[in-house]
Design a protein that fits this description.
Length: about 550
């Protein structure tokens, strides 16, 4: 059965136990074994869960926080996902609400699918936000084609902590108005295709140095400061009628009457602040309940699910103990409490679940993903230091190329080689005698490709950055960064002749950066975050 019955009928016909089942959104894994698939089918059939949240595999980042399991590669993941969604829908008594994290496209979870830039890259685009609307629309079309109703995006956290291990590049930046307007454009693009969104991670995960997958971040700010900054995008988007809000796992005592409870489990923050003070009447979904910030605090099965529901969450994402959670909620919740959440969830289903399963086929885009990414690459390219004349003089004076974080056979150097003669090396290959190899060379074109988007181990380049600083101190350098701009806090970038940030290492971003170096392409982007001006790197 796929047709969703009207709320008026559902409110009469579903038992109280079935209504509570609708609150649960267990994890579904694309690369599960047949045995694991059948276990989830039994949960769907017996517990009448309301939806599923899809993840890549049980070894992916969503469960493998310590990174000890090897993540399988499956080029057919998208086909597998689509097949599984249809299979799970067929066994459900009532249509399942299917969700996924697709902040930068299905590629966040699924191989061989279109990938769009991180939010931080979109944050660099100046002027109107039409392109960001298009990103939201393209991602929504990809979701719709697969049978997904709900993209758990965008992130509207204001990233004002360079050491943030889990938000950073997922945020549109550190300025509240910029985050709000760009998130709104993404949401409007998503909604134009009939796909739901969820703003996260309420009340704001930006100013933390702890990953809530591993521990509970503490935000020690006054309520006044939080209302003026971190909560600003949430409040504005609530006023714009956002579909849902995801409650993050954060300790914010100023918002919880001094209590140290996780915000996702706090009545003061969800019922008091979000609903009563900020006026949100839609669905609240918890961040994944398997995350260590909350899961380790509740060893009794079903207790965490009850506490999360009682705090004000309507949808319990990644609930690991569905049967026990349903039993506990039925024992402790009032009928009115259950009915209120059920009504909100069913309204969300009525808004998003089509009358019949969409037919597969190519979605129609105004721009193909490649063309959209090309425009995004062009508009986000940011010249942090230097002018076109500096680059032109450098270009005409002779130089050598040194690639950092990637071999010399990269699209940036390949694009340049089509127009100019270029001697290219890789820092990793020449690491032991780099300066000796460069004796007699005064000018270095230095593209940096950080292996990581998050700040762990200096974005994966701890040792390499020591040599980068040597080059900046001793050579005339033009630097192109294909990654997180916060990496520049780890090097003496002020010593470079010019610094250009391309944000992504997609081939098209490298090709547009090459055109910029050849002075055939402008750089109209603006840095969406501030860099530490006081760090000394020797």
């Amino acid at each position: 059965m796929y047709r969703l019955i009207p709320y008026s009928k559902a409110s009469r016909e579903l038992s109280l136990q079935e209504k509570v089942g609708q609150f649960f959104m267990p994890a579904a894994f694309i690369n599960d074994s047949e045995e694991e698939i059948q276990i989830l089918e039994r949960v769907i059939k017996e517990q009448h869960v309301g939806g599923l949240c899809f993840f890549h595999s049980r070894a992916s980042a969503a469960t493998n926080y310590e990174g000890v399991k090897e993540i399988p590669y499956n080029a057919e993941s998208l086909t597998t996902l689509t097949t599984l969604i249809q299979r799970y829908q067929k066994i459900a008594k009532h249509p399942l609400l299917i969700s996924i994290d697709a902040e930068w496209g299905l590629a966040m979870r699924i191989e061989e699918t279109p990938q769009y830039p991180y939010a931080l890259t979109l944050g660099a685009i100046s002027g109107d936000n039409d392109l960001i609307f298009e990103v939201g629309r393209h991602i929504a079309q990809d979701c719709k084609k697969a049978g997904i109703h709900w993209n758990l995006a965008p992130v509207v956290d204001i990233n004002n902590n360079p050491a943030n291990p889990v938000i950073g590049y997922r945020s549109f930046g550190e300025r509240r108005e910029q985050v709000y307007k760009k998130a709104l454009a993404f949401i409007q693009g998503t909604q134009s295709e009939g796909i739901l969104t969820s703003i996260k991670h309420f009340p704001g995960h930006g100013d933390t140095a702890t990953d809530s997958h591993l521990g509970l971040p503490i935000i020690d700010k006054s309520k006044k400061a939080l209302l003026e900054n971190e909560l600003y995008p949430f409040q504005k988007l609530i006023q714009d009628g956002v579909d849902s809000v995801m409650a993050g796992h954060l300790c914010v005592p100023a918002l919880a009457q001094g209590k140290a409870d996780p915000s996702s489990l706090s009545k003061e923050i969800i019922k008091g602040l979000l609903r009563d003070e900020m006026g949100f009447t839609g669905v609240v979904i918890s961040d994944a309940l398997n995350m260590h910030a909350v899961s380790k605090k509740y060893p009794v099965k079903g207790e965490l699910e009850w506490v999360a529901f009682d705090a004000g969450n309507d949808v319990l994402c990644f609930a690991e103990h569905t049967e026990e959670g349903i039993t506990t909620i039925l024992e402790r919740a009032s009928t009115d409490q259950i009915e209120q959440s059920f009504k909100r969830i069913w309204a969300l289903k009525e808004k998003s679940i089509p009358k019949e399963i969409p037919k597969s086929g190519q979605a129609t885009n105004h721009l193909a993903p490649y063309e959209l990414n090309k425009k995004l690459a062009t508009e986000s390219l940011t010249c942090l230091k230097g002018k076109a004349g500096d680059i032109r003089e450098f270009l005409n004076s002779g130089f050598i190329g040194i690639s950092v974080g990637r071999n010399a056979d990269n699209p940036f150097f390949k694009s340049l080689a089509k127009s100019i003669s270029l001697d290219c090396l890789s820092l990793e290959v020449e690491a032991t005698n780099l300066l000796e190899r460069l004796e007699g060379e005064n000018r270095v074109l230095l593209p940096i490709f950080p292996p990581l988007a998050s700040p762990k181990d200096s974005f994966g380049l701890t040792q390499e950055l020591l040599q980068v600083n040597d080059l900046l101190a001793k050579k005339e350098v033009i630097l192109y960064l294909f990654g997180n701009p916060y990496l520049l806090n780890h090097i003496s970038w002020h010593k470079a002749k010019a610094v250009v940030i391309a944000y992504q290492d997609f081939p098209i971003f490298q090709e547009m950066a090459a055109l910029h170096f050849l002075t055939q392409q402008g750089a109209g982007g603006n840095l969406p975050v501030a860099l530490d001006q006081n760090i000394s790197h020797g």
